[in-house]
Amino acid sequence: MLKTEELQINIGPQHPSTHGVFRMVATIDGETVVHIEPVFGYLHRNHEQLGEVLTYLQIIPFTDRLDYFNAMINEQGYCMAVERLAGIEVPERAEYIRVIVAELSRILNHASALGFLINDMGAWQTPLLYGMRQREMILDIFEALGGSRMMCNYLRFGGVARDLTAPVLEQINQLMEQFPSFFDEFERLLTTNEILLARAQGVGILPRELALSYSVTGPLLRGSGIAYDVRKAEPYSVYDRFTFDIPVGTVGDVYDRYLVRIEEMRQSYRILQQALEQLPDATGSYINPALKAVSKQQSLRPPPGEAYARVESPKGELGYYLVSAGGTAPYRYKIRAPSFINLSALSDMCRGHKVADIVVILGSIDIVMGEVDR
Predict the structure, then answer these.
(1) I need a labelling partner for 164 at 20 to 30 A (CA). Which of 141, 182, 345, 365 fits?
(2) Is the pTM higher than 0.90?
């Protein structure tokens, strides 16, 4: 029998399938993966330490650059932590607007992430363009609200920077009419595609016990059969007013994670329907009147203490920990980034599979290096 030796190969940090400047050191035996060592830090920007010298308000646009696909949800988690620290009330209308932009973000994220995943399997852009087409329509709405498509800087302490106007509301309603046909079309194109089935079923299995031991969250955890979602486990904002389901997988492979994301888009659509229906009856302004002036936001000095707030981002549980010493900048600023924690299970998910499966398994985790390297 031919005797061979293990070999180490580098994938990345500059590689189209590593989803950013990310390197994997793969130890292989022939074509079989023995171990994967994730190497990151190439995008490190001192985000957390910068936060300790900026004012609370100045940090908001920096949070957009964490998971730059989901600026609105990043801002929501951070603003919630500051509001808990400073005891700031958020008007009901503002909470509804936050939920609407958050669920639009979830659809945007999953549509794009699934397109990239299929590209990792060898497709030549078509599914990705289907997802990106929908993403662009949602970004049009974000641009109308925040003035920017990706770095929105839209949320403020006690609410949002601008109200949801009638023209923007009409734009959202028109998009809502298109969502069901988009979901159906996306599924018709992909769900039973034989290449997708061959590359995803039984690949990258993450057993539920292992998923729990790694503290992974989001679709990665739910794909392993655990129905954990912060919106249900610890409802924040006005999520306790909506009816929606938490989809879970049964096997924990790449295909289950695909199915979970498809169903989560449909559930976000259900939440959006309810939020838009209830919005006209929501009381209060788009922002707490005591903090409407920019100068009030800029000079915010929360009393000494600490606060933690978490939200369900499309990639998992996103948490912000803040310590105030009574100044205009946080004394300590720490982020629980789901992309970083979910990556920790990569080696176990790849072990025993072929080299060509590595990028597919990585794509099914859905990472953004902006929040891995903070």
Answers:
(1) 182
(2) yes
